[in-house]
Design a protein that fits this description.
188 residues, 14% helix, 35% strand, mainly beta, Immunoglobulin-like, four-stranded antiparallel β-sheet
């Protein structure tokens, strides 16, 4: 004997329908589906959080950073006063030209934007890109990058001459995010 799942009457253990309330006695499949979805959601959230916690945020200039299957690397850092009369850093400053490479190894199209890269000087002041240039550099702007695509370009900042505490920060979205996603410490 067993109890009916609905009216709690005693019924035959092999009964598929309760003779009293006329309801099927099979498993409550909807209940198990909901429980399964909740469990999968919890596991996914835990694994995602664990992946973020294990993601290193601090890198040296020569490190390649992989974030969400996209590789970010610094190809070159050049410090210059400027190469012609139209492109000259102000007195006591120099241009820091950073060549960035982005490789999309994900399965989806991504967006990239030079404004997501911010320079932090030795005094801890963070600055956006300095875009005016008369150089022949191919600048990194913004756009979309197909799965498997690559882009490379220069971003320029004007910083104090000889500053040895420069860091380049990447924000997943510089307009929204308050905390940087990762940063490189630039070689002196």
């Amino acid at each position: 004997m067993k109890k009916c799942k609905y009216c709690q009457s005693e019924i035959d253990s092999k009964a598929k329908i309760c003779p009293y309330c006329k309801k099927k006695q099979g498993p409550k499949i909807v209940k198990w589906i909901i429980i399964g979805i909740i469990v999968i959601g919890i596991i996914g959230a835990v694994l995602s959080k664990k992946e973020e916690e294990n993601f290193k945020k601090e890198y040296s200039q020569n490190d390649i950073v992989t974030y969400k299957n996209v590789k970010y690397s610094i190809v070159k850092v050049e410090k210059t006063k400027g190469s012609n009369q139209y492109f000259q850093a102000k007195e006591g400053y120099e241009y820091v030209k950073v060549t960035i490479k982005i490789e999309n190894n994900s399965d989806e199209k991504i967006s990239y934007n030079a404004l997501n890269f911010q320079m932090v000087n030795g005094d801890g002041a963070e600055a956006s890109t300095y875009t005016i240039t008369a150089e022949e550099d191919i600048q990194l702007h913004s756009g979309d990058l197909d799965a498997g695509g690559k882009v490379e370009g220069v971003i320029i900042w004007e910083e104090k001459q000889g500053d040895t505490g420069l860091k380049l920060r990447y924000y997943n979205n510089a307009l929204i995010d308050k905390n940087y996603t990762f940063q490189w410490t630039l070689n002196n």
